[in-house]
Design goal:
By secondary structure, the protein is an alpha/beta fold. It is built from 4 helices and 9 strands; from the N terminus they run βαβαβββαββββα. Helices cover 23% and strands 31% of the residues. Helix 1 crosses helix 2. The chain is globular and about 50 Å long. The structure holds inosinic acid and magnesium ion (MG).
């Protein structure tokens, strides 16, 4: 199970790196003079976070969360299960929540609500991929790498049942993989 399970490559590693460099430049401008703390949502955002943070030419602190959403459009922060919480003191900081993909919007919507309880100076969101068609709420990210079609994507942190995260590109998973017994 690997590359051969991908039916179409949407973004090559070169395209991803180039887009992340652009995003880094934008963030460098926007966060000049601020106290930027990236809160990265594991596991999927780890690859994106590592590359993005190195394209930001400012002091950046990085913290991590492991969360899992359960629920629907009428979400509240109570619909989020937290497996690992932030450890830094976020009071007065400029928090940028980073995730691999924005899908229904339930996860990021709930994380943003929860982050506000830490009394940060600001809270914004940044995602590598945005599957706009799937949104169940009004949520929009402040920074988006790529707008993507409503397909199941893998690679560059994105997984199917925990696999494929280390593919260097982002591709569409072959639907025959879902049918396979694991
Ligand atoms: P949301 O709460 O529906 O926005 O969930 C976003 C999360 O769903 C992401 O962090 C991913 O873990 C997962 N996800 C959504 N779409 C995909 C996909 O196409 N491939 C892999 N993971 C996905
Ligand atoms: Mg995820």
């Amino acid at each position: 199970m690997h590359k051969e399970d991908v039916k179409q490559i949407l973004f090559t590693n070169e395209q991803i790196k180039a887009r992340i460099a652009e995003m880094g430049k934008q963030l460098t401008k926007d966060y000049l003079g601020k106290k930027l703390v990236i809160v990265s949502l594991l596991k999927g955002a780890a690859w994106f976070t590592a590359d993005l943070s190195r394209e930001i030419d400012l002091p950046v602190r990085t913290d991590f969360m492991v969360v899992s959403s359960y629920g629907n459009a009428t979400m509240t922060s109570g619909m989020l299960k937290i497996y690992l919480d932030v450890r830094d003191d976020l009071r007065g900081k400029d928090v940028l929540i980073v995730d691999d993909i924005l899908d229904t919007g339930v996860t990021l919507g709930a994380v943003v609500d929860m982050m506000k309880e830490h009394s940060p100076a600001s809270v914004k969101t940044c995602v590598l991929c945005d599957k706009k068609e799937r949104r169940l709420n009004e949520f929009e990210a402040d920074y988006v790498g790529f707008t993507v079609p409503d397909e199941f994507l893998v690679g560059y942190g994105l997984d199917y049942a925990g696999d494929y995260r280390n593919l260097p590109f982002i591709g569409v998973l072959n639907s025959s993989v879902y049918a396979r017994t694991k």
